[in-house]
Specification:
- Helices cover about 45% and strands about 10% of the residues.
- The protein is of the alpha+beta class.
- The strands form six sheets. The protein has a three-stranded antiparallel beta sheet. A two-stranded antiparallel sheet has the order 1-2.
């Protein structure tokens, strides 16, 4: 360069400094030193984010992205800079709004707010300025909140500011999000499904509100990860709805699961075929037994050529009167220390009716979805002791290698 200016590349200097930073020894650092290092490095990262945003906005103002075959500047930055779409959008937004947010940029430079705060503020400023009905944007009130609030809380502050500036546009965005709702049930081998979808803010909050109480751990022995507990909660919620839909007991009322199985399958006999569940296909005998614990049963007799010879009348197990008596007696899930209410339970036969167990109060208990599953598919046992109290027995080590009949005799 002319006029005696340094020819050193600032990025090369920065790369060398970063290499030195990463290669230094951290042995012997105290927790306080670790914390201070995190604060300083995060501030330096925010300053680099500011520079990246300025360059990103400059790049977005050109047509270079199109010349290289990308559909937008954000798409090019996301791909070439190995970033998420959200991060690339934030970078361009901050770069474009920086000149109109001088006090906020200074706050990042001085370490009083983070780049994440600035990205939210820039997005809010851009949305308000793009609105045909909103007034002028003033960064001062929002910056004051950014100085006090965490990033997650500041996101709400920005949403309130958008609503105050243009309630109609705020509503339009919400309506658009509702219209964008989607849910796919992608079938997998063995009847399993993968869920893929999108819910707007209200829809997501509704689902989470319904699932969170059901997804709590059910006791000290509940070692399920949170994602497993949420999945189980969704199944339990759907099962509860089906149970309510069928509560009248009248044929044709409400949706219900339909399982087809032989008597041998219900009894868990060796060599019996699997059951058939609508929308799923073959299911194991213990699952058939669990679903049959508290269900309407229709007897169908087939001839040697599979022709239907007789169809018996449907009956519900247990009867309405027995179910009401169970609810009064057990008041909820009978598993020790479970707090699921009676309305979220099914009647379980301690000795399964397929093995001659009676459908009466002495042989029935109420169990929630989780604990009913543990009994039939999970290998646990629930027994009534001489004093009438219920006791749980964990699965034996060999259980998971063999199916088990309702009377706990080996089925394979």
């Amino acid at each position: 360069m002319c006029n005696g200016a340094s020819t050193e590349d600032p990025l090369a200097t920065l790369e060398a400094a970063v290499d030195g930073l990463r290669n230094r020894s951290r042995t012997g650092w105290t927790p306080e030193q670790l914390g201070q290092q995190l604060i300083r490095i995060r501030h330096l990262a925010d300053l680099i984010e500011l520079e990246f945003s300025a360059i990103a906005a400059g790049f977005a103002a050109t047509e270079e992205y199109e010349r290289q075959g990308s559909v937008s500047p954000v798409a090019w930055i996301r791909h070439e800079c190995r970033m998420s779409g959200r991060a690339a959008t934030d970078a361009v937004s901050v770069g474009e709004q920086a000149d109109a947010l001088p006090a906020s940029v200074d706050a990042v430079t001085e370490g009083r707010i983070g780049f994440a705060h600035l990205a939210l503020l820039a997005g809010c400023a851009g949305a308000i300025r793009d609105s045909a009905t909103a007034g002028e944007f003033d960064e001062t009130p929002l910056l004051a909140r950014a100085l006090e609030h965490s990033v997650s809380r500041f996101r709400h502050d920005c949403a309130h500011a958008r609503h105050a500036a243009d309630a109609r546009e705020f509503l339009r965005r919400q309506v658009d999000a509702v219209e964008a709702r989607s849910l796919e049930l992608l079938p997998c081998q063995g009847g399993a499904v993968v869920l893929r979808g999108f819910l707007d803010a209200v829809g997501g909050a509704t689902l989470r509100t319904a699932l969170e109480p059901l997804a709590r751990r059910s006791g000290a022995v509940d070692d399920r990860h949170r994602d497993r507990r949420l999945a189980d909660a969704l199944v339990e919620l759907a099962g509860h709805h089906l149970g309510n839909a069928c509560a009248t007991g009248r044929p044709g009322q409400g949706a219900h699961l339909q399982v087809t199985a032989s008597l041998e399958t219900l009894q868990g006999l060796v060599g019996a075929s699997a059951g058939e569940l609508g929308f799923a296909g073959p299911i194991p005998a213990p699952t058939v037994q669990r679903l049959a614990c508290d269900a309407s049963i229709a007897r169908v007799v087939l001839g040697p050529d599979s022709a239907v010879l007789d169809v018996g009348r449907a009956r519900r197990l247990p009867s309405g009167a027995t179910r009401r008596a169970l609810q009064v007696r057990d008041r909820g899930c009978a598993w020790p220390r479970c707090d699921r209410p009676a309305s979220w339970t099914a009647a379980h036969h301690l000795h399964h009716w397929a093995h001659g167990g009676a459908t009466d109060l002495s042989n029935l208990v109420l169990l929630c979805h989780r604990h009913h599953w543990l009994i039939h598919e999970g290998g646990w046992q629930l027994v009534r002791e001489h004093d009438g109290a219920l006791a749980t027995i964990p699965p034996i080590p060999e259980y998971r290698r063999s199916a088990r009949a309702p009377d706990h005799s080996a089925a394979a």
